[in-house]
Amino acid sequence: MAQTSITLRADPIPIVDAEINGRPVRLEVDLRMPDALAMSNEAAQRLRVQRIPFVAVRISIEGGDASIRGRIARPRFEIDGRSSRAFAGVFPAPVTSRADGVIGPGALPHDVVIVELGPEQADARDIVFVLDEPDIWSVHADVGRERLRIGFNLSNQESVIHRTASRLFDASGAISAAGELTQTHLILGLSTLMQPVRTELTVEDLSLGPTLARTNAPLLGATEEDAVVVRGQVDSPPPPALTLGRAALERCSFMRVDRRTRQLTLRCAS
Q1: Residue range 136-145, pLDDT digits in tens
Q2: Degrees, nearest 5: CA angle 218-221-223
Q3: What is 117-269's CATH number, 2.40.70.10, 3.40.50.2000, 2.130.10.150, 3.40.50.150?
Q4: pLDDT tens per residue across span 215-233
């Protein structure tokens, strides 16, 4: 069977035109999302999306207290004449200001998904990663001396170092504070504490660009002479992770995922 493909232009973010229950809908493609959709109650009502009785969902940020509750649906949707079904979370608040809802790239009914990021570069090279799951755009790479789970976010310029990785890099001196700790929006209307940092860390020679570190307390850094550092033990801390923002991909022309081979390819300037 021939492969099916779709090409999306991230200008500034990828949007797909689709139909849900025969009604037109615009969906923001969020590369951090799994193979699912998210929409507001208002959008679900307009699209006549029926919730599954007695089934609810709770979304929270890893390691955070804030959460949002919603209902589960499984609407039929069509993109480019191809129909599919994916679970959808229906929430009481807007999930995006750019479209009618949000869809994860793994929910798109295509074998190959290409996201155009910018013009082709003269000295481009292909950076190839292996996906653990074909429908979840998350890979692994060595960053500094750590093995990190890497995600991608085209809606924000900043890269985000998540809490476990922030602790590791703060202790080693690989990151240092560059601003105040503040509550910052992350995804689906949820916020978490983050602090701007300076760093020379790279992923496959791609600099991180402006970077935020998720942390509950201000970073101290490994070279603070007068600092007294107290560390608590967490039974099962989440694996260290990093989300690359749009600025980190400024030298890249496209991102391509082949679900059959489980490969994610970034074409970027050297």
Answers
A1: 999 999 999 9
A2: 145
A3: 2.40.70.10
A4: 876 665 544 444 433 444 4
